[in-house]
Amino acid sequence: MISTDEILPIGQINKPHGVNGEMSFTFTSDVFDSEEIPYLIMEIDGIPVPFYIEEYRFKTNSTGLIKFQDIDSEEAAREFNGLSIYVLKKYLDKVEDNEIELAYFVGFMLRDAHKGDIGIVTEIDESTDNTLFVIAEGEDEILIPVGDDYITDIDHNNKIILTNLPEGLLDL
User: Fold this and answer.
1) How far apart are CA 103 and CA 9, in angstroms?
2) Residue 60: which of 32, 88, 90, 25 has the closest Cα?
């Protein structure tokens, strides 16, 4: 049985497409396209259930169409409207971190090699040329640049971003 601790959301089913069970969906990671993943997971009555992929195709860089085995009608596909799509965390460990949408990191702990735990990422600020992790600290915000120069490792299972920030950055 699949545990909810073993899965991470990567998208959502939008609605049926056509009459043969195909569905439109949006995604934040196309991990299933770059890794050999036989199934995606959706929660049915609070229980993670695997659904085997029959075929899929991308429409844009964040939307696509998917067909699962044994879902062969528009009525059956309609039952999936609005459901979140999950993958096992172990597959995300194999994907290059720059292939994952930044919104995925909201909720991760930012931990620095020198300062320890900095805080939980509450949002991603992409309003400037320098994308930033935003960490709420009371009424203040800590802004940390998102960059390969600072991020040393990502622990997907424990939702931790390990960094080595330049001295003085947190004092600004």
Assistant:
1) 11
2) 25
2-35 as b/e, with b when 16 or more CB fall inside 10 Å?
eeeeebbebbbbbebbeeebbbbbebbbbbbeee
Tokens of 102: 């930044």
pLDDT of residue 94: 61
How far is Cα of residue 103 from the mean position of the Cα atoms in its chain?
7
State the 10-residue block means of pLDDT for the chain, 172 residues long. Answer: 83 92 87 81 92 91 91 95 88 60 83 91 87 86 87 83 87 68
- Pick among 3.40.50.360, 3.10.490.10, 1.20.120.1200, 2.40.30.60: CATH of 4-99: 2.40.30.60
CA 157 to centroid of chain Cα atoms = 12
Taking the C-alpha atoms of residue 128 and residue 21, their distance in angstroms, rounded to an integer, is: 42
